[in-house]
User: Fold this.
Amino acid sequence: MTSYTDAQQQAIGSLTEPMQIIACAGSGKTQVISQRITKILTQPGIEPRNIIAFTFTEKAAAELKDRILGIVAKERGDIVGLAEMYIGTMHGYCLDLLQRIVPETFKFSVLTDITARLLVDRNSRKSGLTTCPTSSPKVPTLRRFLHSKLFLQAMSVLREDTVDAAQVDNRVWESLDSYLRLLVQKADFDFTELINLAVSFLEADPDDDDDARAVQDHIRADIKYVVVDEYQDVNPLQERLVAGLIQFGANLCVVGDDDQTIYQWRGSQVSNIVTFAERYDGVLQVTLADNFRSSKGVVELARSIADRIPAGERLAKAMISAENQTWERGDLLALTFEHADAEASWICDQIEALRGVPFRDTPDANRRGLSWADFAVLYRSVARDADPLVAELRKRGIPYVVKGLNRLFDSLEIQAVVGIFRAMVGEISEDELRELWVQADLLPEPCRWRQAWEVLERGRDFDRGARWGIYNIQRVYLDFLEALKIREETIQGGAGRGELVFYQLGKFSQAISDFEQIYFNTSPAEKYESFVKWLQYQAPDYYADSDADVGYAAPDAVTLATVHQAKGMQWPAVFIPCLRRNRFPSKRQGGLGLFHIIPDTAIDEMDRYRGTVEDETRLFYVAVTRAQKYLSVTFSPGENQLYQGRSMFFNHCAEQAWVSTKPSSKALERIEPKALHETPQVTISFSELKYLFECPYSFKLRFLYGFNPPIHEALGYGKGLHDALAEVHKKAIAGELLDASSARRSPIRNCAQRSTSRRSQRSNGTSPRTVSKSHGRCTRKSRSRCMSPLGSPSMAESISFGGWIPTSWPSSTLSQAIAPRRKMSLATSSTSTRSGTKSSRVRTPIFLKC
Assistant:
């Protein structure tokens, strides 16, 4: 039986009042949440479907599910319906809610940040990108490729935040309308619109809208407990979602740490967690102050850093060490170097010196020698600062991985892979491509090169008259690797290199999938040429800040990551290099920014988008608290004059009694290095189990390394058929039996007319809908339904066009074929309210039935 502190027991056992759990770093909050949810399940009349638990990432959700399952199995045995409890991200919940209750959303897919940017860049004018104005005289409108990331940020802020509409150029609102129309035409959601649409149903008047009534009836009947982890990072729109879910009396428990608020630049408001007890009645606050992760030295240093934040901007708390790790003089270091190469060299020296040093992961665990995977190097920016260390790691043959897809295209292996497609479009010759693969040491059987080249020859025969879907980038990539008979065990190099190489190759497979999701229905020659240009000029920037890994592989290698990517993780030894003035804390960047599109005076707490010293302090606090025992902060002057001085954070650490400014000369005991191998929590569907049953190696490639299968054009037909049958089934359960005439109702024409009418209303200064700022309640009909027969077979169209469109048709025919159907099913209505002299505008989606 797990033992809990008094504070943990209080957090677990108090189930009636609203609760705020203030969880300091390393305080065991996941275990507490798991035990609390298990306790909730023992309450009379409570079933798993009555509980929602939000996590910030799917990885955190998988860990929470695993913990709950283990506790339930130990304490209660089997519980029927446990799978009906939702544990996951807010975006995932909203998608599930919409596609279970609102049939019109069945055919919609979800864009990631990467695929949304690809979509906008490919449709630069149609999306509103190149017509979006700025206040900069040098850049009157945004530009394709250069500003697509900024454009998407602005489009999200307009829907997520409270914005004074009167201060925003009307052409910016028109760009938002264009962007949303494009999403509808492509049957896509972005992450913001997923939540925005769900919130609109939760806030709508159910008497005016059948789907809003269905959504709210479900929430009223089923949702009894809501748990929100990482509450400090929710944005205003997500806060409205939480309010909508508890509006019928569900118990709310929020868990978080204001000192770890690190996503302000995405719109999160630290004031949400700081003022929670003031905004809800009868809140019970519980502070989990015991840090079970780190040594006393690390905890005391972290406390001193958090204390730099003004008292009025943080919740009062004092983290203490449970001393599960011992602190010894020399464990914490603050060192200065003359240049970046010397800094990188010392970090490698220290990694090699600590490798094999005995370490206990928990007080009752067996000793093991530290291995490569026990070291992490955390940067404010990997893209800007990691080059010297990467070069030194390569020089010494120390295995390393870069978290996410950041710097993916810098590796020799991926440069060789990119060469495949450069060769296909004629940029390089066969001999030049082979040389790239030789340099990357990726030819386990050189005699098989001819077969691999023939794969490319067949793949670039664009004149053979086949359907466009046959010219599949992912298929060429996988067939090429297969022709070379590349396997982990055939990769040349030291122990573990095969796993590292496949880790990289799997990431590239994800990049292909991202591109093909948007460009699948493109003429073959154009698609491959666009792909090569994207790989060379856009993709490195697209993935520069990517914080998501693909697959579950965890190679025994040193981790290089940004501090943002390290959130929620821990390592026995952590290095924080490049602590330079204007780098960390980061200097506010110049150039075109968000406030050139949306005036800064139009947004509440606008400084969170710019970044403040307090925000940077919280980020540094997160970096320090990733360390379990060993922590080294280092400084070397940068090449630019801006970065010649030492960071205030470095100076602060160097002044602390727990930190040494000279390395220890004490001899260290060594034992056999042994990496900590944890069983990954793999979340799969029943359909995906077929990969395991049919071919275990295929399952390994897909789920361990992140390889994606080629997209098949027939999936569009299957998805359309599935969606149609799902809607028929839903209506049958409700007592409505459909016949052939049901397939001939189509509201397309009226939808287009209605959305045009709404745009005209806004341009004339009127608004079809008003929302109260304090309650978010619709005072007029929030959405519209129109059902007018056009005599067209809409169900057949949904089957034909719901997913991938038949690619053998010429593009002109494609546009003619989809134009009648894809007029408009999702628009926005502008809402204006007055509070004193300030006008605020909330962007709310209008889902029109098609």
Summary: DSSP finds 32 helices and 20 strands in the chain. The chain has a mean pLDDT of 84. The longest helix spans residues 497-519. The first strand starts at residue 19 and ends at 23.
